[in-house]
Amino acid sequence: MNTETRKAIDTFLSGSRFAVVGASPDRRKFGNKVLRAYLQSGRNAVPVNPKGGLIEGRASVPDLASLPEPVDGVSIVTPPAVTEKVVEQAAKAGITRLWMQPGAQSDAAIERAEALGITLIHSGPCALVELGFRDE
Prior knowledge:
This protein is α/β, with parallel strands linked by helices. It has helices at residues 3-13, 30-40, 80-92, 107-115, 127-130; strands at 17-21, 44-48, 54-55, 58-59, 73-76, 97-100, 119-121.
């Protein structure tokens, strides 16, 4: 991992409140595992899922515009076409740090986030590894 990426991850994780777009109630899915990784590491994380409901005991919100409080960063665990829409939602919500988990990124989403001046982590680093996720 290069120094720039390491610095971006450290800065991202220095926040105190996060959102996980693509959080799932299904514990086998990566959206659920990323949410649990934040929670296991003692971080405050809000699940974002358009279907709503409780995920890992936390009330989910349908989109970034519905967050009850500002967040310091957003992990995205969605198909690339959805990620492109999430970038636009993040910009409208004033969110300046995004982490596209492996498989969520697309060239269009990366280019748009960079054009909007959003600090971005993409194309490799995984929150599960960085947060030391344990599948319990």
